Amino acid sequence: MEDILYTVKEVAMLLKCNQEKVNELRKSGILRFMKLGCYKIRRETLLKFLEDYEGKDVTDPFNIKELY
Predict the structure, then answer these.
(1) Considering only CA atoms, which of 66, 39, 37 is closest in space to residue 52?
(2) How many CB atoms within 10 Å of residue 46?
(3) Which of 14, 25, 39, 51 could potentially form a cystine with 31 if both were Cys, beta carbons 3.0 to 4.6 Å apart?
(4) What is the pLDDT of residues 4-55, one digit of tens each?
């Protein structure tokens, strides 16, 4: 299967948040991007992030908390 790359703007739309929040997640290191002109992330990496942080509050990516 072919890898699909998403930009920060596209990730923000998918996660239903703003680009600033996506950049904060990127800067914290919990959402790993590559720089290829602009920042891009593989679809698989985004799906792994969603799986790994399900049930957690990542509002402050430098202070992640359990929701339950």
Answers:
(1) 66
(2) 20
(3) 25
(4) 999 999 999 999 999 999 999 999 999 999 999 999 999 999 999 999 999 9
Which amino acid, residue 8? V
- Residue 56 CB neighbours (<10 A): 13
**Which residues share a beta bridge with 35?**
39
Residue type, position 31, single letter: L
1-28 residues labelled b (16+ CB within 10 A) or e (exposed): eeeeebbbebbbeeeeeeeebbbbbbee
Please state, in angstroms and rounded to a whole number, the distance separating the CA atoms of residues 19 and 16.
Answer: 10
Strand order across the beta sheet in which 5-7 lies: 5-7, 38-42, 34-36
